[in-house]
């Protein structure tokens, strides 16, 4: 895990021995579970470090405060970026949300095995939980590494962000066209594009972007619409 420690340091993030031990255990559990369940196409250790762990930790590039903040990782999959963020920033309260129950069970196993506190894995659909008072407009940050189009992703994620908070989608490749096409959706949902944070994963040629979309006002109650509609008829 020295590779991880060095790359994190290059981003200004310092991991101690107990944190790198957590990442090692997480890696082992991920690869083991992946034999019986499709969690990730990436299993080679160096690639997992670069493309999953370091990529997740690139949150640090946003310059946002972590102390006492609540973060939702929507469509977390195998736990990225939520679990790496919890290991690196134990002071954050984190909720992992995924629509596949067996993935959520795996995430709970990881949480238990690593002894992580202040993190919960929840099974359900984004559009259902967004209607509940307990979750709606209740998070400082909502992150997602889902590959969905930004207009669609905004509809699912922005309703969870509290006023003054941020929706932070992780993206790869050229996102300029996607940003342009999602302008209307972001505005309707109460958001505003504040910054585009582009970077390369240290020591690689992997180019990544985290968008900083600030929540200005409450999202209209009708959003998100019921399952399937956002992707079928995106807001534009």
TrEMBL record:
One of its GO terms (cellular component) is cytosol. InterPro entries: rRNA_ssu_MeTfrase_G, SAM-dependent_MTases_sf. Specifically methylates the N7 position of a guanine in 16S rRNA. It comes from the Bacteria. GO terms for molecular function: rRNA (guanine-N7-)-methyltransferase activity. It comes from Anaerostipes butyraticus. S-adenosyl-L-methionine binds at residues 75, 80, 126-127, 145. This is Ribosomal RNA small subunit methyltransferase G.
């Amino acid at each position: 895990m020295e590779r991880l420690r060095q790359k994190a340091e290059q981003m200004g993030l310092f991991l101690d021995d107990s944190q790198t031990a957590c990442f090692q255990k997480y890696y082992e559990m991920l690869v083991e579970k992946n034999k019986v369940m499709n969690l990730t196409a990436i299993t080679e250790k160096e690639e997992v470090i670069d493309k999953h762990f370091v990529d997740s930790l690139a949150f640090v590039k946003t310059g946002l405060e972590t102390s006492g903040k609540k973060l939702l990782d929507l469509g977390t999959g195998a736990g990225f970026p939520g679990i790496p963020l919890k290991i690196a920033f134990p002071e954050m309260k984190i909720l992992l949300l995924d629509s596949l129950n067996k993935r959520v069970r795996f995430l709970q196993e990881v949480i238990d095995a690593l002894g992580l506190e202040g993190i919960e894995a929840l099974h359900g659909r984004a559009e259902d939980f967004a209607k509940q008072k307990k979750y709606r407009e209740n998070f400082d940050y909502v992150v997602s590494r889902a590959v969905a189009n930004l207009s669609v992703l905004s509809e699912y994620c922005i309703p969870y962000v509290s006023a003054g908070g941020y929706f932070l989608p992780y993206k790869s490749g050229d996102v300029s066209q996607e940003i342009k096409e999602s302008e209307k959706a972001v505005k309707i949902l109460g958001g505003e594009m504040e910054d585009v944070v582009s970077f390369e994963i240290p020591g690689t040629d992997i180019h990544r972007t985290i968008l900083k979309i600030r929540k200005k006002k409450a999202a209209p109650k009708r959003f998100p619409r019921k399952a399937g509609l956002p992707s079928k008829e995106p807001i534009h």
